[in-house]
Amino acid sequence: MPQYDSSAAISQTSSDEGFNVAVQSQAVESWNPDHVRVNNLSRYSTRSSHVIPDGNKQTEREDEIVDPFEVTFEGSEDSENIVARMSYSRKILISVILAGAGFCVTMLSSVWSLSMDQMMAHFHVSREVATLGISLYIFGLGSGPVFLSPISEFYGRRIVYLSGLLLCFAFQFITCFANNFGAILFSRFVTGFFGSAFMSVAGGTYSDIFTKQEIYFPFQGFVLAPFLSPAVGAFLSGIVNEYSNFHWCFYFMLIFTGCMCVAVSTIPETYKPYLLKLKAQRMCQETGDDRYYAPLDKVPNSLLDTIVLSCRRPFGVLFLDPMMFTLCFYTGFTLSIIYMFFICLPYVLSTVYDFGVGAQGLCFLSFCVGMIATLPLNYYTHTVYEKKVARNGGVSQPEMRFTPLKYGVFFIPSGLMIIAWTSYRHVHWIGVLCGAATFGGGVSLVFSGVFTYTVDGYRLYSASALAANSFTRSLMAGIFPLFGYYVYRGLGVNWASFLMAMVGVVMMPMPFVFERYGPYLRSKSPYAWVDDDNDEQELDNEKA
Question: pTM here?
Answer without folding.
Answer: 0.78
